[in-house]
Amino acid sequence: NADPVRLQNPLAAQYAVMRSTLIGGLVEILQNNLNRKQSRVRVFEIARVFSKASDGRFVQNERVGGLLYGSALPEQWGEKSRSVDFYDAKADVEALLAGKAVQFVKAAHPALHPGRTAEIVLDGQTIGFIGELHPQWLQKYDLPQSPVVFELDLAPLTLARLPKFTEVSRQPSAT
After folding, report:
1. Residue 23 main-chain phi, psi, to 5 deg
2. Cβ pair 62, 46 in contact under 8 A
3. Which end of the chain has fewer beta carbons closer than 10 Å to its terminal beta carbon, N or C?
4. Could you tell me the pLDDT band of residue 39, with boundaries at 50, 70 and 90?
């Protein structure tokens, strides 16, 4: 973020600015899991991010972010092992936005790999982004392979229709 929200009296130097994205926290969690010999990591976070509006006031938005790393499926004999990719994360985002016409439009993001990044567009409005982590961050955090991350506004997710309750039959099913 070129113009972050700065704190006047931070607790420590690394906490001098408010976070403007969830990616940093997700990568830190990934690194902690890799240090504990976890080779397949799926994490998400729902939290607030902070920014400045064009008129100078502060804005806080609730976002949901996710990170996928390692093999796409747990180790098994029935499937070949493959690493997660953009399409695995895209499927997760589409599941979160089930029933809505969502589009993925090629874009650029400073924390994500050029050419492997997309904006998430819902009803003509950009609500987030998705892509692989930029190679410079892979080197900085000493990650053996690139995780796929996504982040989107929480508000469109809360407008989803809830399933309707139906009473469970008292009689057990028979086949």
Report:
1. -60, -45
2. yes
3. C
4. confident
